[in-house]
TrEMBL record:
Name of the protein this chain belongs to: 3-hydroxyisobutyrate dehydrogenase
E.C. no: 1.1.1.31
Example GO molecular function: NADP binding
Pfam families per record: NAD_binding_11, NAD_binding_2
UniProt source species: Smittium megazygosporum
Domain annotation 6-phosphogluconate dehydrogenase NADP-binding: ranges: 151-318
Record field: catalytic activity: 3-hydroxy-2-methylpropanoate + NAD(+) = 2-methyl-3-oxopropanoate + NADH + H(+)
GO biological process terms, semicolon-separated: L-valine catabolic process
Region (Disordered): 1-28
Pathway the protein acts in: Amino-acid degradation; L-valine degradation
Organism lineage: Eukaryota, Fungi, Fungi incertae sedis, Zoopagomycota, Kickxellomycotina
Source organism, top-level taxon: Eukaryota
Gene Ontology CC terms, in alphabetical order: mitochondrion
InterPro entries: 3-OH-isobutyrate_DH-rel_CS, 6-PGluconate_DH-like_C_sf, 6PGD_dom2, 6PGDH_NADP-bd, HIBADH, HIBADH-like_NADP-bd, NAD(P)-bd_dom_sf
């Protein structure tokens, strides 16, 4: 039987619009009542799920009663997470998904709560605004990742981006709309597609790309390029729609990344910083490591559903900006290790040791690292390394310098000593000033230190 309503708890009886048969709507400036697990009706504000300061963000509509009854009949719904799981299954099976499902989910849960209030075994958890918001974000974000034919916008078709975009085409059924400020890069990409050209469109502008995309991935060289891509007169923000997943895989300053994410959030979209490691070879093979910063673990899962088609290791690093922090620390170490590897290989060869023998011993000993084993700077040691292709097609020397500068700036801000990195940056800076090395793979630092 229905519990007795103790109106003394709420301070006054509900007004005439209130019905004990269903939850009342949350409306700004009014005392609204919702059923609590203790068997009492309480004001929404007292339950920390509404009130005048939050109700403008919550518009609770009442869903289909028959469907709620159908869900209820299973006897499995005991809380918000299970209710949402059922609703996700329904949306998935019928392919009638509204990504902006916040009000629908919450109102459905309280409708189910009303039915369950008549059951003696009802055991509903008390909810807070933060738990509802977190759950709704998870629902909305996971919902966005389900559609197999959604359009993905890809910005930046350079050495890395072009391979990443091709892997998306090869490994999914998604359509792509692409943009690069360099028309030659766009033409090259369009003429070397692994699938039918019907699935690829070249955007006339970044705003055009944004207005056509459910997911946007940016892969650009520097902080200024990312800021411009979003904020220019014809930038992404001009066409950005609410609930768009925005993934930035550029390696940029952490503070700039957080700034861009904040702008995206204010537009009602979902930001991620997801820089990569693995180089051009990893991008082509689809084995990149993505270091992801996001607002929550739940939202990270939605990005992972996309990134897994371009990489092998998709790692949740924490809050927004964390992915960029991990990346600059990794590249700081990589720049130093490549320089040390080049010095070791150069010294050994000058002392008369065969470079392949030297590398093979290093790679079975304690000096082994990525720079000696995967991308050895000495030519004719590792077959697929850039050094075997006149240092073409890899990660440019000037880009490595940029990343070292990012790490040094972060070190200054946190008063962290980076002595080796500071020395390495000066050597890369001198190499980047040579026109024949600036755009070559950074392993070409061997040519610089050996006076070639």
């Amino acid at each position: 039987s229905r519990p007795v309503v103790d109106y003394s708890v709420v301070g006054r009886e509900p007004d005439s619009s209130f019905s004990e048969s269903e939850p009342s709507r949350l409306e700004e400036g009014t005392d609204q009542y919702l059923y609590d697990t203790s068997g009492l009706w309480r004001r929404a504000a007292d339950m920390d799920i509404g009130g005048t300061d939050q109700s403008s963000e919550m518009s609770i509509g009442l869903p289909d009663t028959d469907y709620c009854s159908e869900v209820l009949s299973s006897g499995e719904i005991v809380g918000l997470s299970q209710a949402m799981e059922k609703l996700e299954l329904k949306s998935n099976s019928e392919s009638e998904l509204n990504p902006d499902a916040f009000g629908f989910v919450i109102s459905t849960f309280f409708r189910i709560a009303m039915f369950l209030s008549n059951l003696s075994k009802a055991n509903l958890p008390k909810l807070s605004a933060s738990s509802i918001l977190s759950a709704s974000r998870a629902f909305s974000a996971s919902a966005l990742s389900r559609s197999s034919n959604e359009t993905v916008g890809f910005v930046g078709l350079g050495n890395m981006g072009a391979h990443m975009a091709r892997n998306l085409l090869k490994k999914t059924e998604k359509n792509l709309i692409v943009y690069d400020i360099n028309s030659a890069a766009t033409s090259n990409f369009s003429s070397n597609l692994p699938v039918s050209s019907d699935r690829v469109k070249v955007a006339s502008s970044l705003a055009d790309l944004a207005s056509s995309s459910k997911v946007i991935i940016t892969m650009l060289p520097e902080s200024a390029h990312v800021k411009s891509a979003y904020s220019s007169d014809t930038g992404l923000l001009k066409g950005l729609k609410a609930d768009t997943i925005c993934i930035d895989s550029s390696t940029i300053d952490t503070s700039v990344s957080v700034e861009i994410s904040s702008i995206i959030e204010k537009r009602g979209s979902i930001p991620f910083d997801a820089p990569v490691s693995g180089g051009v070879m990893g991008a082509e093979a689809g084995t990149l490591t993505f270091m992801v910063g996001s607002r929550s673990q739940e939202e990270f899962e939605s990005a992972k559903q996309i990134l897994q088609h371009m990489g092998k290791n998709i790692v949740y690093c924490g809050k927004l900006g964390s992915g960029q922090t991990v990346k600059i620390c990794n590249n700081m170490l990589l720049g130093c290790s490549m320089l040390a590897s080049a010095e070791a290989m150069n010294l050994g060869v000058k002392l008369g040791v065969d470079p392949k023998l030297l590398a093979s011993i290093i790679n079975t000993s304690s000096g082994r690292c990525w720079s000696t084993q995967i991308s050895n700077p000495y030519p004719n040691v590792v077959p697929n390394a850039p050094s075997n292709n006149d240092y073409n097609g890899g990660f440019g020397t000037k880009l490595m310098l940029k990343d070292l500068d990012l790490s040094i700036n972060a070190a200054k801000a946190t008063n962290s000593p980076v002595v080796l990195t500071s020395v390495a940056s000066q050597i890369y800076r001198a190499a980047a000033n040579r026109s024949d090395l600036a755009n070559k793979d950074f392993s070409s630092i061997l040519k610089f230190i050996s006076n070639q």
